[in-house]
Write a structure and sequence with these properties.
Largest sheet: 5 strands, mixed
CATH superfamily of the largest domain: Cupredoxins -  blue copper proteins
Strand content: 25-35%
CATH topology of the largest domain: Immunoglobulin-like
Oligomer: single chain
Number of helices: 3
Number of strands: 10
């Protein structure tokens, strides 16, 4: 089911997909039930059948139950979704694991900038490198990022990682992911951010450990210590 979703390549993507399925099945089931009931009443009380509907005041317990029982069911389902969603939110947004790699991500009209700390492992020094629209990470390592925006609200969106986080001007937002499958994947902006919004996309490249080391050495001319 839900085969139209892009393949998941992150360690927490399964939790997001599980929550998505729960919401999908609950809302989908009730949508079908309500539509069938509407169809039944349209046919049952069509003027050609000369059927008269009853006026129900709803002031007796059996009649009130037709309102109170659905309300109770909706509340139970809603609280269940909130509980599962809260657990997923806590694991992804609040429990930030120790980083294997760190990168700063900046959104601007209409590009993504990715800044790496260089051989010294510190940001704000001469060996930092900023790359536009290309994010390179090793497979199987936790990547921590600090996200911000230079101008308007953007939304850092990598569907295959099940990752979407707004980038806010004046704020630095922490996040993380761990990719489990090498390859190249699309990075988009999921927030309408101006006339060039449609062109604001980049590429995530997930390398094997050896390929990532070669990429690092090529960017810093072989002067980088092994990561």
């Amino acid at each position: 089911m839900l085969r139209w979703l892009p393949p998941n390549i992150s360690t927490f993507g399964g939790d997001v997909d599980h929550l998505f399925r729960i919401i999908y099945y609950i809302t989908g089931t009730w949508f079908v039930v309500v539509e069938l009931l509407l169809l039944y009443f349209l046919i049952r009380y069509h003027k050609s059948r000369q059927a008269k509907s009853a006026y129900v005041r709803g002031d007796t317990p059996p009649q009130a139950a037709w309102v109170l029982v659905p309300v109770l069911v909706v509340m139970v389902l809603d609280l269940s979704i909130d509980k599962i969603g809260g657990d997923v939110w806590h694991r992804i947004k609040l429990e930030l694991p120790e980083a294997g790699e760190i990168v700063h991500v900046t959104g601007k009209q209409f590009n993504w900038e990715f800044t790496y700390p260089g051989p010294d492992g510190k940001f704000g020094t001469a060996d930092d490198q900023t790359i536009e629209n290309e994010l390179h990470v090793p497979v199987g390592k936790v990547v921590r990022f600090e996200l911000t925006s230079n101008d308007v609200i953007h939304s850092f969106f990598i569907p295959t990682l099940r990752l979407k986080q707004d980038a806010m001007p004046g704020r630095k937002i922490q996040g993380w992911f761990e990719a489990v499958k090498p390859g190249t994947y699309e990075i988009g902006c999921a927030e309408l951010c101006g006339f060039g919004h449609y062109s604001m996309h980049g590429v995530l490249t997930v390398h094997t450990a050896q390929d990532y080391q070669r990429w690092v050495e090529s960017r810093w001319s072989g002067k980088t210590a092994a990561r």
